[in-house]
Amino acid sequence: MSSPYLIAAIGFSALVALSMISSISDVFTNNALLAQDAMIIQTQKHHELLEMKVLENILSIQNKGINPSTLKEIRIFDDRASMLAIKPFSEPGLRIAPLEKFSYAPEELSVSDFESKTIVGITELGNMFTASLDKLLATEDDSTSMINGMGIASRIIHANYQGKLIYGYGVSGVSSSLKPYNIITNPADFAAQILDSDPKIILTIPKFNTEYSYVPSQNALQQSGAIRPNVLSYSQSRTVGGTGIAVQGQEGITFSGTGTVIVKLNDFGGQLLLFETNVPANAQLRLEEFNENDLMNIPYNTSYGWSVWSSPYSSIHPSGHVHGGCGAPYTVSHTLSLQPNKSVSTQYSVKRINGASSYTPTVTTSTSGQLRIQSISETVNVGYCNYGLLCGDSSCTWGWSEYNYPNTHPPHIPIPGTVHVFDQSPANTLHLTFGPNYQSTYTFPAGKQMYLVAKPNGNAFTIKATVFDLKTTPYLKITGLPENVPYEIIKDGFASASGMAQSDGTVTLLLEDINISGTNQGGIMYLYPASTKYRGAFSMVVFDNLNQMTLHVPSQENITYVAHAYVQIPIIGNVTIGDMHLDGMPLSYLNGDYSSGERIRVPVIPGYKKINMKINGIAASITISEVLGGTGLKAITPSTSTITRYDGDGIVSSISATTGTVAYVISTADGTITTSITATISGSSRIENSAYFTAPPPIPPAPPPTDPLRAYVDIYRNGKFVSQKQIYFNANPLVTNTGTVSGSSSTVIATYTYPQTVINGVLTTGAFAGDMIEFYVYANTQADGPIPPIPSGHTLTSHAGKGHATATIHGGSILSS
């Protein structure tokens, strides 16, 4: 036989699968014709019914179906599932008309008797029928109907799931797109499967750096625990340009009034503090280091601002300029200049102040790296013709000399007053800019004097700081949650943390677990009380969604497996099921009393081939391959996965989303499986990373495109990874990448979009009889986060980032033969 018989799960009806394939394009006509043939075969298979019985050591086979059946071979196994004999029928096989019956003695099938044997008949259509033994049939109770149901009416059902996987250690973890196989690379003692359809409880977190208790009756968080004391204080204050004041209190430093209020903070060098404040939108508050302009002491002009530099002009001394024949007054222009080389903001002005009068000199600037005042100059006309002695350092001569008109004998010629460089926003090292609902940690530099500079603008607000230890101080603690409940913490629509509560319902997170800082102190918590979850030692964790259970299965690597195929066993009569297991692995949660019309759904787990149980106390078993039905056609149902990331004190370096579907086949003989795949996929992603500096930076360039959309097929044999084949790659998305500036921060945004694309692939896989081969077809989009550049002459203070990625499969088909 050149290829094995194949049994596969059907996710949609064959008609839906056919229409899905046909609608793609004429390019895929061959696949559509194959699907049509498969649909006919599928209908015949559903109607095929052979009754196989052993009575008084004689095997009888009767066609109870509506169409003729062709029996290809009979296989006989012992009680250890080892094959004892095989009887193939000459081509084209044993044809059995409806109601026709054949009988065989043991010696005709090369065995001595049928006692404790499993006898399986395999038809041309790929169905397997198992003979009922006489000792079970003789009881004529509910178990007889149950065995018949298992052997004939039992079928594989298929389930598709969309969602995400959360896994980690303790209470904090990471999230990724949900796949049938998920390799766990980090240490883990929990995993949770969050399906898109799972219900969730939404809780508001008013602010972080706080302890809460969960109140289920109110569906809310209630603040609990001691409030950490404020430690922020100052030694000196100054107000300019208004009537503002600073007041020290137990809750922090309160600023109010108008103008600019400056406080000289006490020494916190080397300490990590957590700041909390709520600065109104029309007010300002900054943490600065006065390394360039000492605002606590330099003069302030209410009209022009801070005098960050000042100097008078030098005097012009008579030069002994000689003009022969001069008999009348004359004038000569003289230019005086100063070279401050002073850095300023764009809100600068240069004035010469002489008493109550002010003059505007000529100014030259440079903008290389930072705006600087390079030179200041003014031109003055002096003159009067006078004949007399011109004396130098060692001698005198007679000639005409210049004097500042109308003075006739001045010692020098001055330009009166003082030249000032004024700045409304003097340049200093800016460490933090506070805003509305602000909360963030900051480590004070050792040996630096720090100041708070506030512009209340008629408002009143308080800033508080508490001592914070990154390794021990909880940034968020919540008690009283449901035990081991999976959760996510959302900030501005993006996931910033995920994990699972402890068994006592407590979640304690450090700052590094949440990555939230800056504006907006609060967030949202999602609880998933109904999601399937597991906590304990890892190896392989199986998510059994239909039964809402998890299984811990020994394996050589840490992995989660989402069961997508189930043996559905119909119940006939009233039965008690006990000692349910898969090849020795207990499935005790399926034990119990069942009534007629109910279904037992046993998860198909790679590597496990036989279902064992007791039916009303009578031992029974069935090999999974005996009940698998189908033609090898799988319609791909539409699926989408979106993953988000938020980092308040770092960049989002990359983000990825994966979505897909899985098909499987069971080989009944050694050979090669050929699989044809057709699908329509699309994807998108967006990452926004910001950098914060001590001064406004230039606009950054747009980042280059780096995001590809790919489609893969992962192949597993009996639960073990065999190979991966890339069937599509596109590194040319529709790109909208930008760079922007806002205040002292720059932001680079990378946005990629892939419209719907039809993909195709054909692959072959070797298989042995009884192998379960799984094909996981998926679309993946992955984006690398752009990094804001650090301009020359600028000091970086922090980063922040957020992003999301979406991968979608719109439909398609998987056809194996």
Radius of gyration over all CA atoms, rounded:
42 Å
Assembly form of the protein: single chain
Q: Care to count the β-strands?
A: 64
Major sheet: size, sense and barrel closure?
A: 8 strands, antiparallel
Mean pLDDT: 80
Extract low-pLDDT stretches.
Answer: 1-39, 135-152, 320-325, 402-411
Strand proportion = over 45%
Total of DSSP H or I helical runs spanning 4+ residues = 5
Widest sheet: strand order?
Answer: 15-43-40-41-12-11-14-44
- Share of helical residues: under 10%
Describe it.
Helix content is 6%, strand content 52%. It is mainly β. Strand 30 and strand 31 (372-382) form a beta hairpin.
Task: Write out key terms for the chains shown.
817 residues, disordered N terminus, single chain, mainly beta
Outline:
The chain has 817 residues and is mainly beta. The protein contains five helices and 64 strands.
In terms of topology, how is this protein built?
Layout (H helix, E strand, L loop, with lengths): L5 E3 L5 H9 L6 H19 L2 E6 L2 E6 L5 E9 L5 E6 L5 E3 L4 E4 L13 E6 L4 E3 L3 H4 L4 H12 L1 E4 L4 E7 L2 E6 L3 E3 L6 E6 L5 E5 L4 E6 L4 E5 L9 E7 L4 E5 L2 E5 L3 E6 L6 E6 L6 E6 L10 E2 L3 E7 L20 E7 L3 E2 L4 E7 L2 E3 L2 E5 L5 E11 L3 E6 L4 E6 L16 E6 L5 E5 L4 E6 L6 E6 L4 E8 L8 E4 L6 E6 L2 E7 L6 E3 L1 H4 L8 E5 L4 E4 L4 E5 L4 E5 L5 E4 L2 E6 L4 E8 L2 E2 L5 E3 L4 E5 L6 E6 L2 E6 L9 E4 L2 E9 L6 E14 L3 E23 L15 E9 L2 E11 L3 E9 L2 E23 L4 E13 L11 E21 L1
